[in-house]
Each structure stands twice: as structure tokens, then as C-alpha cells.
Amino acid sequence: MIRSDNLAALLASLGLASLVGCADAGDDDDLADDDSSPTDDDVADDDAADDDTAPEWQGSLTGVVQDMGGAPLGDLRVTLCLDICLFGQTDGSGGFTFSGLEPGTHKFDAIAPAQDGDTAWSNVLFPVVIGEDEAVVLAAPVFVPEVGAPVPFAAAGPVSVASGELVLTLDPATLDFPPGVDSPWVAGARIDPSHWPPFAPDGVEVLGAWALAPYDTEAKGDPIPVRVEDSFGLAADAAVRFWVLSYDDGGLVEAGTGAVTADGAAIETDAGEGLPRLTWVAVSAG
């Protein structure tokens, strides 16, 4: 056995005497005061750093916006919404790209001015499914519809648009017009199916669709009654359904029911049924 004084001499000869001093000076209080051990806050910070694993999504959407004649619409505002909305603007060729998209069913909206000179415009809204890290390129252009000249109205009653094919019963006192519309007017146009966005729900065959303006004018009271010529060959008294664009899911949602008139000349919404707002209106068999 080596005696402690002999051990100290041996360590001193090896230049390790300071270690002996440190050992001798140490006690329980020194250990208690040692702050080199990780604290709860240190552990929490480390855990937070470890949990910072939010993915950087790589999905994207690219497309082109055109008018009904196929001309590009540059400097047009476009939005894409999921949990939040992203805002963009088309370039000179009508192109746009949204990137960093997470997977889900997004809502795309091309937003035109309500009126440009003597021409009124509607908007386009439709759902777009983006897969995880998927780069979606729209196969067809997004067509933003011109809907003719504004038709002013000052009193409650029927107003004809779309070359008289579509009649809306409107009351300016019960309509909430969007910003920038200083006096009551309405416009509408029937849109060819080749220019429809992909907005129809699964299993619904849309017979006809009309774009309306001022887009998103809201009926504050009763819904807006609709009458449209029956150019679809439906039988008299046949049931139909009316649809409008919805910001809830980006596509068409049912607005109400209707029927072909007894003479087979027109389709009308049922009593108390109609449009909650002016967006697009579509008709399907009931």
C-alpha cells in the first residue's frame, strides 16, 4: 500500500500536484455550486430545437390567365388560398406561379376589375389539388370572362342580362355591392363550356353557366330569383338545381332548386330560392 505522503510526493514529481490540491479543496458545497450541469431551461431549449421540424413544402402551381378571346391578361391580381391566402400578379404574358405550397385543395381566384370603360368583368374561382411536393401546371388557360355592358337599375324588379337570356329580380336597397361600385348595375354573359374552369362537383352535369358582375355582390335579404331560357330541351315542369361559386370550397355549391315552366319556355327558381350573391350561376338537371 502507498502512503498518502508518498503518493503526494510521487504526483508532485510527475507535475500533477495541482490535481491533488483541487481534489483536496473539493467538498460537497463545491459540487452543489457547480453550474456546469444542464438546467431545465437548457433542456427545454434543446427540445425546442429538436422539435423545429416543420417541413419546407415544395409544391407549386403554374398557369396562364387569358380573356375570352385568348389574349393574355397581364398585371391581373391572382390569389391562392388554403389555410392562408397567397397573393400574386400575372406577368405580361398572363403567367403566374405560386411556390412553397403544402398539399391540399387550394382555391385559385383570378380577380378582374368590375368595370373597365364600357365593359364589365367577372372573376374566376375554382379548386386546385396540390399533392405533396407536386409541381402542378394547369393544362388549359384560366379564362376571365367579359360579361358585356353594365345594365343600370334604380328600382326593384326584373333586370335582363346576357342578351335577354337571363333575368334577375333585383332590389338595389337589399344588395351589398363591392367596393368601387358607386351606383346599382348588373351584367352577365353565358360562358361556353370550353371556357369553364374545373368547378363542377363530382357527379354533377352542368347544363349551362353564366358569369355575373359586379362579382360578389351580396343579397342582404332574400336570395335573388332567377329566370333563364330553357335552351336545353328539358321537359315542362322538370326539376333543376341552381349553383353558384363558393369561397368555402372553391367550386360550385347548390344555391337552390327550380323547375321548367309549364310551357317549357324557361327555367325559374322555386319560391323563396335564389342566389345568395352574384358570382357565376349554373344550372343542372334536378
How does this model look, in words?
It is built from four helices and 23 strands. It has three domains: 4-51, no CATH class; 59-143, Sandwich (Immunoglobulin-like), CATH 2.60.40; 151-285, Chondroitinase Ac, Chain A, domain 3, CATH 2.60.220. The chain is mostly beta strands and 286 residues long. The longest helix has 12 residues, at 40-51. 13% of the residues lie in helices and 39% in strands. Mean pLDDT is 87; it is low at 1-34. It is globular and about 60 Å long. It has helices at 4-13, 17-25, 28-33, 40-51; strands spanning 59-66, 77-81, 85-89, 95-101, 104-111, 115-116, 119-120, 124-130, 135-137, 142-143, 151-152, 157-161, 166-170, 175-176, 185-190, 206-213, 217-219, 226-229, 239-245, 252-260, 266-269, 277-278, 280-285. Strand 20 and strand 21 form a beta hairpin. The strands form five sheets. The chain has a ten-stranded antiparallel β-sheet, with no helix packed on it. Strands 1, 4, 9 and 10 form a four-stranded mixed β-sheet that branches. 31% of the residues are buried.
Write the layout of secondary structure elements.
Blueprint: H1 4-13, H2 17-25, H3 28-33, H4 40-51, E1 59-66, E2 77-81, E3 85-89, E4 95-101, E5 104-111, E6 115-116, E7 119-120, E8 124-130, E9 135-137, E10 142-143, E11 151-152, E12 157-161, E13 166-170, E14 175-176, E15 185-190, E16 206-213, E17 217-219, E18 226-229, E19 239-245, E20 252-260, E21 266-269, E22 277-278, E23 280-285
Parallel strand pairs: 1-9, 1-10
Antiparallel strand pairs: 1-4, 2-3, 2-5, 5-8, 6-7, 11-15, 12-13, 13-18, 14-17, 15-16, 16-23, 17-22, 18-21, 19-20, 19-23, 20-21
